[in-house]
TrEMBL record:
It comes from Stercorarius parasiticus. This is SNG2 protein. It comes from the Eukaryota. It is found in: Membrane. Pfam families: MARVEL. PROSITE patterns: MARVEL (PS51225). PANTHER family: SYNAPTOGYRIN, SYNAPTOGYRIN-2 LIKE PROTEIN-RELATED. Belongs to the synaptogyrin family. Residues 1-134 form the MARVEL domain. Residues 1-16 form the signal peptide. It is a multi-pass membrane protein. Keywords: Membrane, Signal, Transmembrane, Transmembrane helix.
Length: 134
């Protein structure tokens, strides 16, 4: 859910333009990489959650212990990796937001703050997912 919120905040109001130009730019210090990173990890995290949810549904029907072990290790490894990536994303978005000039923000400040906040919450949700696998 947090990944969807970050993704939708950045897609919905993460890009803006100045009143004198029709050219869109990322609200985070005009850094396109900040918006792309947040959107990218948000989409991939959402898709991974769907995949691992389906694995959890079919997990009792998997009789091979080796396959079960690899699925659990994959879930643990992915959760650990995504914890790190969300931490990087939170730091990156926060840093870029701190350097954003006030005159560049006409609309979308609340969405930018929401993206930062929910990327922070995502760190703890992925840590709890990794801890549940242990």
């Amino acid at each position: 859910v947090f990944a969807l919120i970050v993704f939708s905040c950045l897609v919905g109001e993460g890009y803006t333009n100045s009143p004198s130009s029709p050219q869109l730019f990322c609200i985070f210090n005009r850094n396109e990489d900040a918006c792309r990173y947040g959107i990218g990890i948000g989409v991939l995290a959402f898709l991974a959650c769907i995949f691992f949810f389906m694995v959890d549904i079919y997990f009792p029907q998997i009789s091979n212990a080796t396959d079960r072990k690899y699925l659990v290790l994959a879930d643990l490894g992915f959760s650990g990796l995504w914890t790190f990536l969300w931490f990087i994303g939170f730091c990156f978005l926060t840093n870029q937001w701190a350097w954003t000039r006030a005159e560049d923000v006409h609309i979308g400040a609340d969405s930018a703050r929401a993206a930062i906040t929910f990327s922070f919450f995502s760190i703890f949700s992925w840590v709890s997912e990794a801890a549940a696998e242990l």
